[in-house]
């Protein structure tokens, strides 16, 4: 078989399973499906107007993402956010986000730096709009990861994306934390812009650490040490 043979056809539309996965993931990370909610294939398929097969595939991916978990029998529920797991995930996120910022400062790209600046401006402008802030916040961190130039680090951070979005939702409930975090992101941006790797890592880790400490305090538990 030659490479020019049409054994692969162009991808023109998102698969049904991918779309179901995307919708369910957003419903979980946005808080529309709360922790502990049962994820019943038949009911979800009926609500989404699809067969059970793409729902089953989507639920398997959500389980791999840590967003769905076994209910102790044969079913699945939206994964509960245990205080211990939140703390452990934040320890990992602090390390990864710090490394990404360090590499981004040393591998700075003008086009991505402009994207980073634009995301920051949107965060500053949309601090009273939860959905808009969340979108800008995700773009900010995703751009830093891309600027790092390390594909394994990028993938590791993608694996934490659902967790990060759920935590932003919880922080939004706290209201004041969103406003406090904006200047923290500006410090990260300015350090990257100055190509100061050590300072960029410091501010990135400090931002995650402060977020973790604040959230643990609100949940009634001390943050775990690194």
TrEMBL record:
One Pfam family of this chain? GntR
Keyword Transcription regulation, does the record have it?
Answer: yes
**UniProt keywords, alphabetically:** DNA-binding, Transcription, Transcription regulation
Q: What's a single GO MF annotation on this record? A: DNA binding
Q: Which residues form the signal peptide?
A: none
Instruction: Check the record and name the Gene3D superfamilies matching this protein.
Output: GntR ligand-binding domain-like, Winged helix-like DNA-binding domain superfamily/Winged helix DNA-binding domain
The HTH gntR-type domain covers which part of the protein? 14-81
CDD domains given in the database record: WHTH_GntR
Q: What is this protein called?
A: GntR family transcriptional regulator
């Amino acid at each position: 078989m030659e490479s020019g043979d049409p054994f692969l056809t162009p991808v023109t539309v998102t698969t049904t399973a991918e779309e179901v996965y995307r919708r369910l993931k957003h419903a979980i990370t946005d808080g529309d499906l709360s922790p502990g909610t049962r994820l019943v294939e038949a009911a979800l398929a009926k609500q989404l107007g699809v067969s059970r097969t793409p729902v089953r595939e989507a639920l398997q991916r959500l389980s791999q993402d840590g967003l769905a978990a076994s209910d102790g029998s044969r079913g699945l529920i939206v994964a509960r956010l245990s205080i211990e797991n939140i703390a452990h995930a934040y320890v990992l996120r602090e390390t990864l986000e710090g490394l990404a910022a360090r590499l981004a400062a040393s591998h700075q790209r003008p086009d991505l730096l402009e994207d980073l600046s634009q995301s920051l401006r949107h965060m500053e402008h949309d601090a009273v709009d939860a959905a808009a802030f969340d979108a800008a916040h995700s773009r900010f961190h995703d751009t830093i990861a891309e600027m790092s130039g390390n594909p394994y680090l990028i993938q590791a951070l993608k694996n934490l994306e659902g967790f990060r979005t759920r935590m932003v939702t919880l922080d939004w409930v706290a209201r004041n934390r969103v406003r406090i975090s904006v200047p923290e992101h500006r410090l990260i941006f300015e350090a990257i812009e100055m190509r100061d790797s050590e300072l960029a890592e410091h501010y990135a880790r400090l931002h995650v650490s402060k977020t973790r400490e604040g959230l643990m305090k609100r949940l009634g538990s001390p943050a775990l040490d690194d």
